[in-house]
Every structure is written in C-alpha cells, then in structure tokens.
C-alpha cells in the first residue's frame, strides 16, 4: 500500500473521531496531514471526507429522521424542526460561497492560525460549559426559529480551521439556552445539510485538479471516516449528558499548544 494511502486512512479515522466532538476535525486533519507530509490537491480531501462522517449520522438517526420527515405533511412540529435546521444552514451557504477561495488558499494553509484557534476555542468552550446553567431547552426539536438562525450564524465562525463546526454550534446552542445533550443533537442535524453542501461545492470547485490517485485517497478517507464516526456518535450523547464538554476543551488546548510549539521550533 502506498504511504499516501496509509496516511489517507489514518486521516479518515481521525476525521470520523473528531467531526462531532467540539475539537475541530478539519484543524486536526490539516495539522496531522502537514506533519505527515500528506498531499491534498486543492485541499479537497479534508472537506470531502467529512461527508463520510455525516453518513454515520444518517445511519444512527435513521429512525428519528424518518419519523420527522414522514410526519411533516400533517405535523407542525416536524415542519418547524425541518425549517429550523434549514434556516440555520443558510448563513453557511452565503458565507461559504463568498469566502471559499480565501478559506482554502489562505486559512487552510496557515497552521499557526489553526493551532491558535484550537487553543482559543478550547478556552471559550471551557468557560461556556461552566457558565451555561438552567437551560430552557432539552430537545433539539424545540429550538425556536430565531435561535436556530443565530446558531447558524455562529456556525460560520468554523470556516476558520481550528474553530470547529460542532464546537461553534454547541457553544452557540449552550449560550442560547440549550442543555448539553440537545446542543450536541442540533449540531448533529445541522451537520447534514452543511457537510453535504460543502461536499458538492468543493468537488465542483476542484473538479480539474482531482486525479485518480487523489480520488482514491478520498474514497479511503471517506470510508474510514464513516466507521470511526459511528462509534463516536453512539458514545457522545451519553458522555456529554453526564460529564459536559470540559474534556474536549482541555484536549483542544493541549493539542493546539503542542502543535503551536512544534510549528514555532520548525
């Protein structure tokens, strides 16, 4: 097996393990890829394999998703929840399309920024996890539309690699009155249209630079991300309900500090 293929599998596993916990999967994959010498044309690999992790959500939540969509025609609550997720998704569409080239050619190529965002995001997550008390919402389906839209706006901060899409949405939801479990669940549901949109748009933008080898690495990373994400999704909700997000905050701070030190000493 080619070294780049092995690294693609490792990065895929890393993507799946970190996509839904608030530690920045993209930041981890970009930093790991840099230190491992992984070559990714157009940085498409790091974006496209995220859909593998999102498919894990579809598998784990298939029954719940079916219940929502099958009752939408006659159930106002189901329609409102679908509208809330789509409304939260819209800011990412606008900002993602407008800033795509800047994100991929500048932000993705600035590892010191990524490491710094890991540290700062960890500090913010630690503070919000301790501060957010007396939540008003215990079910993701109950989030009001204005709250969903605000979470979607906050999600756009995650276009800076190292911030974390799940971290931004979870912190936003906690700050706006969600409990720890429903914050994670809404982040799960919002990841579906967000990552699907990023997958389609990034493949389109990079269609001219992806050769057979690059596509092969993407397929391997995609599959590895799916299976490792299934494990995390099944475990995460129970863990955060009991323990909160402090573990992930400290992980971000430690990994970001180690990466920043390694980068600064060359």
Automatic annotation (TrEMBL):
InterPro entries, per the entry: UppP
Entry's localization field: Cell membrane
Keyword tags: Antibiotic resistance, Cell membrane, Cell shape, Cell wall biogenesis/degradation, Hydrolase, Membrane, Peptidoglycan synthesis, Transmembrane, Transmembrane helix
Membrane-spanning residues: 47-69, 81-100, 106-128, 149-174, 186-204, 216-237, 249-265
Gene Ontology terms, MF aspect: undecaprenyl-diphosphatase activity
UniProt membrane topology term: Multi-pass membrane protein
Function field: Catalyzes the dephosphorylation of undecaprenyl diphosphate (UPP). Confers resistance to bacitracin.
NCBIfam families: PRK00281.1-2, undec_PP_bacA
The protein's name: Undecaprenyl-diphosphatase
Organism expressing this protein natively: Paracoccus seriniphilus
């Amino acid at each position: 097996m080619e070294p780049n293929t092995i690294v693609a599998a490792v990065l895929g596993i890393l993507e799946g393990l970190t996509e839904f916990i608030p530690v920045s999967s993209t930041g981890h994959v970009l930093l790991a890829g840099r230190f491992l010498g992984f070559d990714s044309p157009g940085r498409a690999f790091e974006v496209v394999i995220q859909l593998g992790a999102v498919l894990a959500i579809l598998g784990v939540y298939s029954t719940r998703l079916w219940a929502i969509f099958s009752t939408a025609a006659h159930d106002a609550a189901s329609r409102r929840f679908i509208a809330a997720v789509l409304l939260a998704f819209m800011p990412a569409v606008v900002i993602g399309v407008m800033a795509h080239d800047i994100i991929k050619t500048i932000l993705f190529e600035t590892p010191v920024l990524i490491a710094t965002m890991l540290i700062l995001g960890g500090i913010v997550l630690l503070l919000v996890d301790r501060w957010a008390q007396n939540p008003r919402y215990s079910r993701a389906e109950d989030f009001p539309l204005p709250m969903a839209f605000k979470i979607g706006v906050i999600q756009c901060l995650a276009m800076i690699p190292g911030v974390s899409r799940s971290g931004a949405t979870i912190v936003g939801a906690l700050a706006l009155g969600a409990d720890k479990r429903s914050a994670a669940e809404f982040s799960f549901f919002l990841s579906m249209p967000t990552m699907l949109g990023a997958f389609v748009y990034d493949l389109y933008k990079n269609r001219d630079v992806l050769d057979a080898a690059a596509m092969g690495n993407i397929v391997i990373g995609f599959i590895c991300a799916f299976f490792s994400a299934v494990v995390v999704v099944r475990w995460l909700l129970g863990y955060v309900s009991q323990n909160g997000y402090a573990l992930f905050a400290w992980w971000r701070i430690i990994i970001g500090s180690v990466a920043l030190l390694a980068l600064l000493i060359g």
